[in-house]
Amino acid sequence: MTIEQRQQVEREVLRVYQQENPSVRFLESDARLAEEERRRILLFRDYLKLPPQLFRGARMLDLGCGTGEHAIFYSRWGADLTLVEMNPLALERARAIFARRAPSEARYRFVE
User: Residue 87 is part of a domain; what is its CATH number?
Assistant: First the structure.
Protein backbone atom coordinates (compact mmCIF):
# COMPACT_ATOMS: atom_id res chain seq x y z
CA MET A 1 0.00 0.00 0.00
CA THR A 2 1.40 3.39 -0.92
CA ILE A 3 1.55 6.33 1.46
CA GLU A 4 -1.16 8.07 -0.55
CA GLN A 5 -3.43 5.01 -0.34
CA ARG A 6 -2.86 4.74 3.42
CA GLN A 7 -3.65 8.43 3.87
CA GLN A 8 -6.83 8.02 1.83
CA VAL A 9 -7.92 5.11 4.04
CA GLU A 10 -7.19 7.17 7.17
CA ARG A 11 -9.26 10.08 5.84
CA GLU A 12 -12.15 7.76 5.00
CA VAL A 13 -12.09 6.07 8.41
CA LEU A 14 -12.01 9.46 10.12
CA ARG A 15 -14.95 10.65 7.99
CA VAL A 16 -17.01 7.59 8.95
CA TYR A 17 -16.12 7.87 12.66
CA GLN A 18 -17.08 11.54 12.64
CA GLN A 19 -20.50 10.59 11.30
CA GLU A 20 -21.08 7.55 13.52
CA ASN A 21 -19.17 7.12 16.75
CA PRO A 22 -18.60 3.37 17.23
CA SER A 23 -17.69 3.49 20.92
CA VAL A 24 -20.44 5.38 22.73
CA ARG A 25 -21.22 3.75 26.07
CA PHE A 26 -23.42 6.52 27.52
CA LEU A 27 -21.46 7.09 30.72
CA GLU A 28 -23.41 10.24 31.53
CA SER A 29 -25.56 8.65 34.23
CA ASP A 30 -24.08 7.69 37.59
CA ALA A 31 -25.82 4.32 37.45
CA ARG A 32 -24.42 3.45 34.01
CA LEU A 33 -20.91 4.52 35.04
CA ALA A 34 -21.12 2.39 38.20
CA GLU A 35 -22.33 -0.63 36.21
CA GLU A 36 -19.56 -0.28 33.62
CA GLU A 37 -16.95 0.09 36.36
CA ARG A 38 -18.28 -3.00 38.16
CA ARG A 39 -18.02 -5.00 34.93
CA ARG A 40 -14.46 -3.82 34.32
CA ILE A 41 -13.39 -4.67 37.86
CA LEU A 42 -14.77 -8.17 37.34
CA LEU A 43 -12.92 -8.44 34.03
CA PHE A 44 -9.58 -7.23 35.34
CA ARG A 45 -9.67 -8.74 38.85
CA ASP A 46 -11.47 -12.03 38.29
CA TYR A 47 -10.69 -12.99 34.70
CA LEU A 48 -7.38 -11.32 33.95
CA LYS A 49 -6.12 -11.49 37.56
CA LEU A 50 -5.08 -7.82 37.40
CA PRO A 51 -6.51 -5.88 40.35
CA PRO A 52 -7.48 -2.27 39.65
CA GLN A 53 -4.89 -1.23 42.28
CA LEU A 54 -2.25 -2.27 39.75
CA PHE A 55 -3.09 0.87 37.76
CA ARG A 56 -2.38 3.25 40.67
CA GLY A 57 0.57 5.38 39.61
CA ALA A 58 1.02 3.54 36.30
CA ARG A 59 1.88 5.64 33.27
CA MET A 60 -0.31 4.65 30.33
CA LEU A 61 -0.50 5.66 26.68
CA ASP A 62 -3.81 5.11 24.89
CA LEU A 63 -3.33 5.40 21.14
CA GLY A 64 -6.67 5.79 19.40
CA CYS A 65 -8.45 6.51 22.67
CA GLY A 66 -11.68 7.35 20.87
CA THR A 67 -14.10 8.90 23.32
CA GLY A 68 -12.08 7.84 26.36
CA GLU A 69 -14.81 5.51 27.57
CA HIS A 70 -12.33 2.74 28.29
CA ALA A 71 -9.53 4.91 29.68
CA ILE A 72 -11.74 6.75 32.15
CA PHE A 73 -11.66 3.69 34.39
CA TYR A 74 -7.85 3.58 34.40
CA SER A 75 -7.94 7.22 35.43
CA ARG A 76 -10.39 6.45 38.21
CA TRP A 77 -8.05 3.69 39.37
CA GLY A 78 -5.10 6.10 39.58
CA ALA A 79 -3.25 5.77 36.27
CA ASP A 80 -1.40 8.71 34.72
CA LEU A 81 -2.81 8.81 31.18
CA THR A 82 -1.85 10.23 27.82
CA LEU A 83 -4.77 9.87 25.42
CA VAL A 84 -4.13 10.23 21.68
CA GLU A 85 -6.92 10.50 19.11
CA MET A 86 -7.11 11.73 15.51
CA ASN A 87 -10.89 12.31 15.49
CA PRO A 88 -11.54 15.77 16.96
CA LEU A 89 -15.19 14.94 17.68
CA ALA A 90 -14.25 11.83 19.68
CA LEU A 91 -11.60 13.81 21.51
CA GLU A 92 -14.16 16.48 22.38
CA ARG A 93 -16.37 13.78 23.90
CA ALA A 94 -13.38 12.29 25.76
CA ARG A 95 -12.57 15.68 27.26
CA ALA A 96 -16.17 16.05 28.42
CA ILE A 97 -16.25 12.57 29.95
CA PHE A 98 -12.97 13.15 31.80
CA ALA A 99 -14.05 16.60 32.98
CA ARG A 100 -17.19 15.11 34.45
CA ARG A 101 -16.09 11.61 35.53
CA ALA A 102 -12.38 11.67 36.36
CA PRO A 103 -11.41 12.23 40.00
CA SER A 104 -10.19 15.73 40.85
CA GLU A 105 -6.66 14.39 41.48
CA ALA A 106 -6.57 12.47 38.15
CA ARG A 107 -3.57 12.98 35.88
CA TYR A 108 -4.36 12.90 32.17
CA ARG A 109 -3.64 14.79 28.99
CA PHE A 110 -5.06 14.70 25.48
CA VAL A 111 -3.14 14.78 22.19
CA GLU A 112 -4.86 15.30 18.84
Answer: 3.40.50.150
How confident is the model over 2-20, as a mean pLDDT? 84
Residue 98, domain extent: 23-111
* Residue 15: inside a domain: no
In sequence order, which residues have a C-beta less than 8 Å from that of residue 21 and are 6 or more positions away?
66, 67, 89, 90, 93
> Can you tell me the mean pLDDT for 45-70?
94
pTM of the model: 0.77
Structurally, how many domains does the chain consist of? 1
Could you tell me which residue, 66 or 75, shows the higher pLDDT? Answer: 75
Residues 6+ positions from 95 with CB-CB distance below 8 Å: 68, 110
Of 74, 26, 25, nearest to 51 (Cα)?
74
Sign of CA dihedral 51, 21, 83, 104: negative
Q: Kindly indicate the confidence band of residue 21, based on its pLDDT and cuts at 50, 70 and 90.
A: low
